[in-house]
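F.,

This is the one I mentioned.
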C-alpha cells in the first residue's frame, strides 16, 4: 500500500512496547484488553502478542474441562491489533474524532484450537483505505503454527 503524501506519519517505536504503550493507543481495558505487547510496528504493519491466561473468564464455560479459546476472542485480538495500527499510524488518525471500531469481517479462517497458557502473535497489515475505513489483513500464530487468518475493516465512528 502506498503512503498518502498528505498524511503525517508518527515515528514508530523501535523494539517491543509493553502494556502501558498498548493502553495509550486503545480505549479497551481489562477484562477485554487482549494485546499484552507491541512487538514491532511500521507505517503499514504491526505485530502484537497476547499471553492467553488460564484464568480467562471465557474458559469457564467454553468446553468446560477441555477449555478452548473462542474464535471470537482470537478475532477481537486481531481487531485490537488493527486499532493499534490505525491509531499509531498517523497524526490524522490519532486525532480524528471518534474511535476505530470493526465494521466488517470479510473473511475469517480458523486452523487450530488454542488452549489456556498459549502465547498468540498477531501480524496485521493495512491493505487499503477509503475515507475513514481501513482495510486490514491479519495472521495469528502460536509459535510456528498458524491459528487463524482474517480480513476485516475498521472505521472511525463517533465515540
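My design for it:
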Amino acid at each position: 500500500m502506498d503512503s498518502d503524501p498528505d498524511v503525517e506519519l508518527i515515528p514508530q517505536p523501535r523494539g517491543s512496547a509493553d502494556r502501558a504503550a498498548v493502553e495509550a493507543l486503545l480505549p479497551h481495558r481489562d477484562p477485554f484488553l487482549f494485546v499484552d505487547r507491541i512487538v514491532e510496528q511500521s507505517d503499514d504493519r504491526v505485530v502484537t502478542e497476547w499471553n492467553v491466561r488460564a484464568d480467562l473468564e471465557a474458559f469457564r464455560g467454553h468446553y468446560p474441562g477441555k477449555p478452548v479459546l473462542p474464535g471470537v476472542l482470537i478475532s477481537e485480538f486481531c481487531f485490537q491489533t488493527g486499532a493499534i495500527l490505525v491509531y499509531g499510524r498517523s497524526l490524522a488518525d490519532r486525532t480524528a474524532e471518534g474511535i476505530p471500531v470493526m465494521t466488517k469481517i470479510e473473511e475469517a479462517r480458523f486452523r487450530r484450537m488454542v488452549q489456556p497458557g498459549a502465547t498468540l502473535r498477531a501480524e496485521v497489515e493495512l491493505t487499503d483505505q477509503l475515507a475513514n475505513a481501513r482495510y486490514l489483513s491479519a495472521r495469528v500464530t502460536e509459535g510456528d503454527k498458524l491459528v487463524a487468518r482474517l480480513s476485516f475493516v475498521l472505521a472511525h465512528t463517533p465515540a
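The chain has four helices and six strands.

Talk soon.
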